[in-house]
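Teaching note: in complex prediction, the entire set of molecules is handled at once rather than each chain in isolation. The prompt given to students was simply: 'Predict the structure of this complex.' The entities are:
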Amino acid sequence: MKILRVNMTTLTTTWEELPGKWRMLGNRALNAKILLKEVDPACEPLGRYNKLVFSCGPLAATNISSSGRLSVGAKSPLTGGIKESNAGGTGGRYLARQGIRAVIVEGKPREEGPYVLYIGDGGAKIHPAVDLEGLGNYRTAQVLRERYGHDASVICIGQAGEMGMAAAGVFNTDMEGQPGRAAGRGGLGAVMGSKGLKAVVIAKDGSYRQPVADPAAFQALRKELHGMILSSPATGKRYPQYGTAGLIPSISVRGAMPTNNFRSGSFAAAEAISGEALYQLITGRGGEGRTTHACMPGCLIRCSNIVPDREGKAFLSPLEYETLAMVGSNLGIGDLETIVAINRRCNDYGLDTIEIGVAVGIAMERGLLAFGDGEGVLKLLDEIAAGTVLGRVLGQGAVITGRVLGAARIPAVKGQGIPAHEPRALKGMSVTYAMSPMGADHTAGVTTGARVEHTNPDGQMELSRTLQVQAAALDALGLCMFVSRVEGDVFPVIEKILTAVSGDTGFDCLSLGKDVIKTERLFNLGAGFTPAHDRVPEFMREEPLPPTNAVSDIPREDYERFWDEEFWGPLDEIWD
Amino acid sequence: MKILRVNMTTLTTTWEELPGKWRMLGNRALNAKILLKEVDPACEPLGRYNKLVFSCGPLAATNISSSGRLSVGAKSPLTGGIKESNAGGTGGRYLARQGIRAVIVEGKPREEGPYVLYIGDGGAKIHPAVDLEGLGNYRTAQVLRERYGHDASVICIGQAGEMGMAAAGVFNTDMEGQPGRAAGRGGLGAVMGSKGLKAVVIAKDGSYRQPVADPAAFQALRKELHGMILSSPATGKRYPQYGTAGLIPSISVRGAMPTNNFRSGSFAAAEAISGEALYQLITGRGGEGRTTHACMPGCLIRCSNIVPDREGKAFLSPLEYETLAMVGSNLGIGDLETIVAINRRCNDYGLDTIEIGVAVGIAMERGLLAFGDGEGVLKLLDEIAAGTVLGRVLGQGAVITGRVLGAARIPAVKGQGIPAHEPRALKGMSVTYAMSPMGADHTAGVTTGARVEHTNPDGQMELSRTLQVQAAALDALGLCMFVSRVEGDVFPVIEKILTAVSGDTGFDCLSLGKDVIKTERLFNLGAGFTPAHDRVPEFMREEPLPPTNAVSDIPREDYERFWDEEFWGPLDEIWD
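The expected output is the structure of the full assembly:
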């Protein structure tokens, strides 16, 4: 296994062996180790000292389901701290098949870009790609697949990333070649843009196969894991039918679905944009005979729904709960067709639907357009792609939009817009948003599904902390977070799989998750984060959220206990 | 001596005795003590938990020259840290004459403002002032002087402060009733706006006179100090003739005058906007028989130049070096008339000319308008006052302007635009900007006048640190920083004056200055500042500044030694 180092100043690539100590680390863990080792945490995120890391996991070149997530990491221009964002799609698997665990992009081109990094044919090359400048993701992916092969994976940015917008994500093609799989959060698309890198193209035909120390054990464990996935209600039935859209109406009923710029947690039109409604829309149009597909090769959960256009042809995939809420209910939009159009356009321009949903919600409250005005939202997105001043404001995300427009209520933590699990009605999410090194990021530890009283502050810190560690462990292995949605405890199975693959014993997912978070914390300390940044916005601590009328009232002491060494072990000791 | 507490939530005022331990503290020191004691440093700057403090010094009700500075303090929406900004004008003296050392404004009105706080007739009242909403400072001051008395002091904000812009200052009338004395930096005008407070009006006729323990000694010391001021070349001759505009061409010749968005330190048209050129313009128009006046009652330095309009009537006062550079050379504008118009309009809208100069410089480099386009700048200012999206971006200052417009070069430290003493050619200023709790603020410690080799990094840390302590001491006593520009050491004289006034001994200005800075540092630690924030921008560390081609290369170790306890004493120990 290799690390590919790409120097955008000299436009050269070099190969390094993956250090043996990192043999079974991937994704979020590897990103954190590399960034802590190589990047000055106080550097400017879009300057030449930041580095952008693409990575996959130690199981990405196996046939274990859901193991091929692609991670993107860097110091974030949105949060100012370390950021990992991961996506399904083909990038993770194809990278692994090229025998590459991580790509480190550094420097900054002396001449105007953009460039494309091509990985294939046993090598890597940087090609000028001036013709791609200013193109959206869909056209970019199409051109590059024509140029490099229709089955290649394309990891790319749209106009937003090229313009250095902090709401810009990194997009990645699915098996149909559509760039709808977003490593959306944290503005990593802007970092990619700052490196002059429009796309990374990875050939499909890499020859690397993961060596397995104990093939018989591996096959048995694979079967066990896959059986758990297929037999569990969430991963075997609900996700494959509805995708994450199935979370509506359950979150809305709980009063935790951001509505009209976080003024309410319950959306009157929730039914109209629910998983069931989406399912009816898809099946009503034929949907090419299926409602969802696997976003990654070999994934059995197949939660990625496919929304066809009026002619029944695949138009958008996936349409996630977060998007339905953040550019739906949060903007007062209760029409699926409009949400689909907004999502498609965000994908094309390379924008994170969550950050944009929060930013536009603020703009609506400040009177720039009315809640529910879907056409107005589409026009705002066009302003972003065109780089108008208003577009550039929104493209910088929730905090800058709020400050520019003079908003007293800015739903963000550590510079990042709060996603669709409302931290007042779901108090565990207050802890996740406030304490995660990732800023307000639901994937860092979702408490929403836990069987607890979500409006009771007691015990939420411990709940969130445990789930943050579990999420970090899965993220460190390139596994989809939904693997943990099976019935029963999946972690012992994963640990045994790691042993079967490597021949080593002693894998402990919880220790791994803790180590990842401690590593990220060390980076963030260097970047200038302190407990002063570990807070939900003032308005969420005071303004009751209808219909539960809950406020975010986790006691300050609980936040302070979060980093207890009793739980984490010595905070400065991390795996080298 | 009293503290007046103004609650904008309940619209009530209460009086408190000034605690005895603070008897000889004022301005920046008192602000810091109050804010550290009463405000959660992690609060949102424009939220209801921030407090705004107006204060004056322990000599403000005496006839000591230059002792009546008005300080404004709060957690800054620009830097996110503690901020003190002070101004001449009548506010400080009149406040003292009302027997008030500090006014603490807290809370936030439940109903739309704005309001006016009137202090006079032995009391204080909050009056609704809806008719003032959206008015500029000149009209506001005029209306309020008509309403409350032509000799009253008016402390007010323009449109920028009302709209919560982080480049908004607090303005204060001079003895002619013109609101040209700006506590400009740090966005304190936005904090005042967030409190719904359009203006504070202070009647002139307060009856308080500072009791003096040893009148004979006091008179002798006063005479000594005044003699030093009048006999020194800077304070007795250059400032009274040219104002701070006299710093041109000396700073330009040294290559330290920001030009064309900090691309150069030398401005081809420097002569045309120099103190000499300004003097010619003023005298050529008659200038009402004088070129400068005292900005505060009784000030002997009289550095505040008065620029007449074409009819010879006073139009703008003062026109400072910082303004000549930041909206002059930094914008490529070499025409005094244009700079005067820009300055006047900034004053009217309530904008800090430094922050606006940095922001507009970035906008010019990003292509929004050409360097030298003075008419374009005036139009941009009108956009700010009108609250257009572009105007609101610029009104938020340099960092947000830079981020929105995608600038790689943002001349700012701790969120605040860098003023007109270029930290590459004047390396001591690198230390001041990077290390002061005030962020990039030249008044926190100007090394420019020191007789050192300014492009040599050696010893600059020690020089800046000493000057920061001295500046803090003067700021803590409400004394103008120019008092320290006299020949000889002024501090022993000041210490003896404090003894003569109070009857106490043991005054030590250096200890006072250190205590102020340590107090502010403690606030900033709570606000989330770490050494990661103590840096000049990356581009200034790498991009040579013509004509010296210097870079900001103070060794990191020097910054790290800044807080040595050997110099400061125990960092957590401050005067209670």
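Point out the following to students. The interface with chain B takes residues 41-44, 46-47, 49, 163-166, 389-390, 392-393, 396, 400, 403-406, 408, 525-533, 535, 537-538 of chain A (CB under 8 Å). Residues 509-527 of chain A form the longest helix (19 residues).
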